Amino acid sequence: MSDVVLTIDGKQVTAKKDMTVLEAARSAGIHIPTLCYHEKLEPYGACRLCVVEIEQRGWWRLVVSCVYPVENNLVVKTRSEKIDRIRKTIIELLLAHAPDAFELVDLAKEYGADRNRFEKEPSFCIHCGLCVRYCAEIKKAFAIGFINRGTKREISFIPEIASKVCWDCKECFPLCPTEALQAAFVLARAMSFPELDYDANVKGK
Amino acid sequence: MDMDKVDQIIDKHNCEASSLIQVLLDIQGANNWLPKEALDRVAERLQVPLTRIQHIATFYKAFSVVPKGRHGVHICLGTACHVRGASRILDTVQDITGLNPGETDLDLKFSLETVNCLGCCALGPVMEVDGKVHGKMAPAKIADVLKNYD
Ligand code: SF4
Ligand code: FES
Ligand code: FES
C-alpha cells in the first residue's frame, strides 16, 4: 500500500493510506487527547475532544481527527488557541455530567477548564459509547446498549443477556472514563438478579 | 399481543433485518405499542441484537414501549391554539379521562398527549382523536366527542 506523507505540528509524518489523522499522529508520537477512541473499535466521533485544525487553501478548518482520513500533503495543527478553547468547553460540559471522573479532572487541569462552569447534572455517563461498542464489536454479546435520545439518552443492560455473560466478563468496566458503567451494572444486577447479589455481597462468594 | 400476528408481520417483510423499522412500525400500528415479547420475537427472527431494537424503539416518538390506549387523544398546545384557550381544553380532557399528558388509563382506552401545532391553526383550539381533527373545541363539547370512542 502506498504511503501518505503529511505534516503534523510541523513534523513530517508518513502514514498508511487508510489511517485517520489521529492514528497517524499517534504513530509519530504526537499526543491528541481522546475520550471515545479505542484502537480496537470502529471510530465513533462522539466526544469531539480530538479536534484538530487542518489547512485547506490557506484557511484553517476544524476536523475531528479520530474520523478524518489522512491525505497527501495535509497540514495539521493539534494545538492552537482555538483548539484549546474548544477542548476546554467540551471538558467543562462533560464535567457537568461526571464531576469527579479522573480522566476529566486531569484534562481539566491541562486545559484550564472550570468544573463549575455549567450547572451540575450528574448522569455520570458521558455517552462515549465505549462500553456499548466494545460489547457489540469485540465481544459480540450485545448485553448493553443505549436507550432513549438527546438529554434522556442512557445505557441499559439487557437483563437476560447480562445475567449470562457479564458476570464473567466485565471487560467494559475499565474502559469507562467515568464510573457510570460500574454503577449501572451494580444497580442492574441488584434489581435483576437479587440471588446473585445476595451471594456476592451477603454470603461473600 | 398475539405472537402469530407478530410472526405474520415479520413474514410480510420477508424476515429481513433491513426492514426492522418497518416491522416495528407495523407492530406498533397493530397493537398501539411494542410489548417486550414482541421485541424479543423480532430480535430472534430478524437476527438483530435486542440492544439495537431497544435503541430504535426508544429513539423514535412513533414507537411506544409502554402500553398505549386504543385511542390517541392529542391536544394542541401550539401558539395559535394556546391563545384560544388550549389549556382549558387540556384541563377538561384531564378531568374527564383522569389522565395527565403521556399517560394511558388501565382499560387501555385513551392515551393523552400534548402536541405543538397540528398544522390547522385556523381551527384552534384543536383536539385530535385517532387522527381525526376536532376543531374549534370548547370545554363543553369535549365529553360529547370522547363518548363516541370505546
Ligand atoms: S457508561 Fe461509561 S463507557 Fe459506557 S457510554 Fe457511558 S461513559 Fe462511556
Ligand atoms: S476521540 Fe475523536 S471524537 Fe472522541
Ligand atoms: S397551534 Fe394548534 S394547530 Fe397550530
Give a quick set of tags describing it.
heterodimer, A: 205 residues, alpha+beta, Ubiquitin-like (UB roll), Alpha-Beta Plaits, 5-stranded mixed beta sheet, two-stranded antiparallel sheet, 7 helices, 35% helix, 17% strand, B: 150 residues, Glutaredoxin, 2 domains, 4-stranded mixed beta sheet, 45% helix, 12% strand, binds iron/sulfur cluster, binds FE2/S2 (inorganic) cluster
Q: What best-fitting shape of chain B do the alpha-carbon axes yield?
A: elongated
Count of β-strands of chain B: 4
**Strand content bin of chain A:** 15-25%
Q: Could you give a short account of the major beta sheet of chain A?
A: 5 strands, mixed
What name is given to the CATH topology of the largest domain in chain A?
Ubiquitin-like (UB roll)
The radius of gyration computed from the alpha-carbon positions of chain B, rounded to a whole number of angstroms, is 18 Å
Detailed description of the structure:
Chain A has 3 domains: 4-77, Ubiquitin-like (UB roll), CATH 3.10.20; 80-122, no CATH class; 130-201, 2-Layer Sandwich (Alpha-Beta Plaits), CATH 3.30.70. Helices cover 35% and strands 17% of the residues of chain A. Chain A is built from 7 helices and 7 strands, in the order ββαβββαααββααα. Chain A starts with a strand and ends with a helix. With 150 residues, chain B is α+β, with helices and mostly antiparallel strands. Chain B has 7 helices and 4 strands, in the order ααααβααβββα. Chain B has helices spanning 3-12, 20-31, 36-46, 50-59, 79-83, 86-97, 139-146; strands at 71-76, 110-115, 127-129, 132-134. A 4-stranded mixed β-sheet of chain B has the order 2-1-3-4, with helices on one face. In chain B, β3 (127-129) and β4 form a beta hairpin. At the A-B interface, α4 and β6 of A face α4 of B. Bound molecules: iron/sulfur cluster and FE2/S2 (inorganic) cluster (2 copies).
